[in-house]
Amino acid sequence: MPFPDVAKPAVAIAVHDVTPATWRECRELLAMLDDAGASPLSLLVIPHYHYRSVVLRDPAFLRAMEARLARGDELVLHGYFHVDDAASPRTPREWFSRRMLTRREGEFAALDECAAARRIEAGIAMFDRLGWPLAGFVPPAWLLSAGTRAALSRYGDRFDYVTVRSGIFHLPGWRFERTANLWYSPDSALRRAISACAIAREQSRARHVPLLRLSLHPQDARVRPVLDHWRQLVARALAERTPVTKGGWARIHGAGPRQAIEAPPSRAASRASVGVASS
């Protein structure tokens, strides 16, 4: 398919926490996005969610992911376990980011380099085994420790980008690009009200930013007003911006030899190329 004109303002729509355990809610989000004509999308896949939901053991989920790839969507490595089991926070700032902004979901918030590298390598191995193209890494809750950053630098040949809450790091040089990012915390009425205010403020700022990110989570599908608000936000974004995957944006706006854009390879070619890279 032709590549979009990303010289215009763009929107990257991502569904987070895609895993067999959350697939019912993710399907509802994807149905809403498909109905809105939002394509392509970035799907953030967790290989072994909370130590219990294993991607490789669910053939139906794997077929669903293959179908999304065939539509032109991107699959992204989203941590490995998606649970923060590192040492407890030692400072008020760490406590706020790891326990308030996210409730023990920031898997890579406090890992050292060796622990982070083991999980990243396991995630890469899963993508390679399945023959899934891999361009991006998104740490759960967008929390990235210094050790994780060092670990990711070991795999500079495998990733084009890493996203955090406020923007994108373009690899391998770690050049930072600020983006706008809309996301919900829907677990309570207070959190939803705060989220709606933050979204309105971020929309105002987004007028001056080339890339707007919409970050949807499975729990958003459980609250009807939140899902309805997302429909409005998606429709407005698509009316004003060109839809892209995060990987597509990074390939065009990143640095290095992989910046050039080519036609997407066939699924068979993708599998062959991954097999060579991992040999």
Please work out how many helical segments DSSP would assign: 9
Helix content: 40-55%
Average pLDDT taken over every residue: 86
Tell me how many strands there are.
12
Query: Structural class of the helix and strand makeup?
Result: alpha/beta
Rg, alpha carbons:
18 Å
Query: Secondary-structure element sequence?
Result: EHEEEHEHHEHEEEEHEHEHH
Characterize the main sheet: 6 strands, parallel
How much of the polypeptide forms β-strand, as a percent range? 15-25%
Q: Which outline best applies?
A: globular
Q: Uncertain spans, ≥5 residues at pLDDT below 50?
A: 256-279
Q: Which architecture name does CATH use?
A: Alpha-Beta Barrel
CATH topology: TIM Barrel
Q: How many domains comprise the coordinates?
A: 1
Q: CA-to-CA gap between the ends?
A: 30 Å
Output the CATH class name.
Answer: Alpha Beta
How would you summarize the topology of this molecule?
Blueprint: E1 10-18, H1 23-35, E2 42-45, E3 48-49, E4 53-54, H2 59-71, E5 74-77, H3 92-100, H4 113-130, E6 136-137, H5 146-153, E7 161-164, E8 167-170, E9 175-178, E10 180-183, H6 189-206, E11 211-216, H7 224-240, E12 242-244, H8 246-253, H9 267-277
Parallel strand pairs: 1-2, 1-11, 1-12, 2-5, 6-7, 10-11
Antiparallel strand pairs: 3-4, 7-8, 8-9
Helix pairs in contact: 4-5
